[in-house]
Specification:
Elements (H helix, E strand, L loop, with lengths): L8 E5 L2 H12 L7 E6 L5 H12 L13 E5 L5 E6 L6 H5 L3 H6 L3 E4 L12 E10 L2 E9 L1 H15 L3
Parallel strand pairs: 2-5, 2-6, 4-5
Antiparallel strand pairs: 1-7, 3-4, 6-7
Length: 165
């Protein structure tokens, strides 16, 4: 088992349903301008996590992977939007900058799949989740908060999920 980065925590999911429920809990904590970065191999559960995250945030819309359109926007009743970016096909920071990430963050939270592909274009304060395939449906999800806002978010998530901070 790898050693966690300082300040990081981990969750284990035994099914797509558990991964989705973790996303629901996390989505309920999101505020405008929050950035959630996802990293992990194909099939690690990134889109499944985002499905839960969007539901927990309050979007009634069906979440699909934005691999070919790059960004999907999900709405909720208060006119906020959740931006869901898939950076798998982006080949440079310049391509990411052309998407005007600051404007997307100004309208609500943003979650980025394959964030490691465009890390240099992203704000340094963020919540970084790395998903690891363990076996069949089991996943290890490492959460690494970068910045006080995100440390507090992970503390609140731990309290919600485990009952302790």
């Amino acid at each position: 088992m790898p050693i966690l980065r300082a300040g990081a925590t981990e969750f284990f999911s035994n099914s797509p349903g558990q991964t989705r429920r973790l996303g629901i809990q996390l989505g309920g904590l999101l505020q405008p301008g929050d950035l959630v970065c996802l990293e992990g191999d194909l099939g690690a559960g990134k889109t499944t996590l985002v499905q839960g995250l969007a539901a927990g945030w309050g979007s009634p819309e069906q979440v699909t992977s934005p691999t070919f359109v790059l960004v999907n926007l999900y709405q909720r009743g208060d006119s906020q939007q959740l931006a869901h970016l898939d950076a798998y096909r982006l080949e440079s920071v310049a391509e990411a900058d052309a998407l005007d990430l600051d404007a997307l963050l100004a309208r609500g939270p943003m979650v980025v799949e394959w964030a490691d592909n465009i890390e240099a274009a992203l704000p340094t304060e963020r919540l970084w989740l790395k998903l690891f395939w363990v076996e069949d449906e089991r996943r290890r999800i490492e959460l690494a908060p970068e910045g006080e806002r995100y440390k507090a978010m992970v503390d609140e998530l731990e309290e919600t999920v485990f009952g302790v901070a």
